[in-house]
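Whiteboard transcription, Tuesday session. T.W. wrote the structure tokens on the left side:
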């Protein structure tokens, strides 16, 4: 498929034909206005130091603490108390938010508070997003480190203060604990808050924590400049095809799963900060970007705006593409569809796709979308979802977990037919 694995860019060469297809696809989508680069809130892995898709973040309940911290009201001998599970992000606070119908905080309307330790003066804002019943009913707003806070920040025109470096240490914008790991900074700030008697209460809490599928690091919401595909412009024909039965799912219940994904679709972050995979075919000179499948083509584009430059003045994007960006092209690229229209016309569309239901959105939906975008028709007529093999703890089989059975040992003990029958009888479609 041309998917990226643990390949060192200096030691391995990706399949040149697949790479060419990927680069052509990127260029075409960009030229059609369906790829853009922008600042968005992303899932950030501080260990791998790359953005992650939502599907690469594993959420599970973990025990933690909810800290009640008081902020002094500017010009008064009075306080407002917030509740937070991440006290280190206090360094990046730019507001306090309360619900407009919460009578407890009506006296604070129009006033400002002082962020403890960093002594930053921030507004107290009123917004219905705040849950009156959670914690103290007062929410610290840190737009650079929470997706909901980011939306609040845009709505109320708040300052965005990024207090974390890419490796999870405190940045210079954090003012205090610069260079310290985020979890060590949490301990240090709690100690300093206790020293000034700013911590009012501490509660035990069970809450969802997102961890990186690869490194198990706690994922940080982070504002980052990345490349995106405008998925909302691609979704309608792909959704219609499944809902009207042009493409049939087996079992049929997965139509509902597909519909949920497609009706709640968000733009796809396709850039990754890894050293393997297909590099994004974007070339920079000063503040201009030129998208082309080769540096020679990009140079010709650049000459229009900068007649005096040399080809060596162009710098290629360091980021690589998400592995699924090559995979979603499969029904087209496997038939050399970007070069040989005759071969593609002969084989396309295919008939049956057999795959796992856990990648309905990651692969199936995206192949359908790209099929309608490039060929104007479905890529396959039927999708059969196999059963999912799990261990006794309900975990998927995984090399990293080491929970896959030794198939040869099973065959030695029970015979090949016994193993085949056992697998088939306990693994119905989509189960």
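and on the right, the sequence the group agreed on:
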């Amino acid at each position: 498929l041309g998917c990226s694995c643990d390949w060192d860019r200096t030691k391995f060469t990706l399949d040149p034909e697949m790479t060419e297809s990927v680069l052509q696809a990127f260029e075409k989508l960009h030229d059609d206005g369906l790829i853009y680069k922008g600042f968005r809130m992303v899932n950030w892995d501080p260990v791998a130091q790359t953005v992650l898709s939502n599907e690469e973040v594993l959420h599970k309940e973990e025990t933690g603490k909810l800290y009640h911290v008081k902020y002094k009201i500017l010009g008064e001998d009075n306080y407002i108390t917030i509740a937070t599970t991440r006290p280190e992000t206090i360094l990046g606070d730019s507001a306090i938010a309360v619900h407009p119908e919460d009578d407890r905080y009506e006296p604070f309307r129009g006033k400002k508070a002082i962020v403890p330790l960093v002594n930053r003066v921030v507004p107290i804002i009123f917004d219905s997003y705040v849950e009156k019943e959670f914690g103290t009913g007062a929410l610290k707003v840190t737009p650079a480190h929470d997706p909901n806070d980011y939306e609040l920040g845009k709505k109320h025109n708040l300052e965005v203060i990024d207090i974390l470096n890419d490796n999870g240490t405190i940045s210079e914008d954090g003012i205090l604990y610069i260079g310290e790991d985020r979890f060590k900074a949490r301990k240090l700030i709690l100690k300093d808050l206790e020293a000034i008697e700013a911590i009012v209460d501490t509660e035990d809490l069970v809450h969802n924590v997102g961890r990186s599928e690869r490194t198990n690091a706690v994922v940080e919401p982070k504002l980052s400049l990345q490349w995106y595909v405008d998925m909302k412009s691609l979704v309608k024909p792909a959704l219609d095809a499944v809902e009207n039965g042009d493409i049939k799912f087996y079992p049929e219940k997965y139509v509902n799963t597909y519909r949920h994904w497609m009706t709640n679709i968000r733009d796809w972050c396709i850039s990754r900060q890894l050293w393997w995979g297909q590099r994004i075919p974007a070339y920079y000179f000063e503040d201009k970007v030129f998208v082309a499948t080769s540096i020679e083509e990009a140079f010709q584009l650049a000459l229009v705006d900068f007649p005096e430059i040399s080809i060596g003045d162009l710098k290629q994007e360091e980021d690589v593409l998400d592995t699924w960006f090559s995979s979603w092209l499969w029904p087209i690229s496997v038939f050399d569809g970007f070069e040989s229209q005759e071969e593609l016309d002969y084989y396309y569309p295919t008939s049956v796709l057999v795959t796992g239901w856990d990648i309905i959105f990651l692969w199936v939906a995206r192949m359908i979308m790209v099929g309608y975008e490039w060929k104007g028709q479905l890529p396959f007529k039927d999708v059969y979802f196999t059963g999912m093999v799990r261990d006794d703890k309900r975990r998927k089989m995984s090399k990293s977990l080491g929970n896959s059975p030794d198939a040869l040992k099973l065959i030695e003990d029970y015979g090949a037919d016994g193993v085949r029958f056992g697998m088939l009888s306990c693994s119905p479609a989509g189960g």
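Someone added at the bottom: The chain is about 30% helix and 25% strand.
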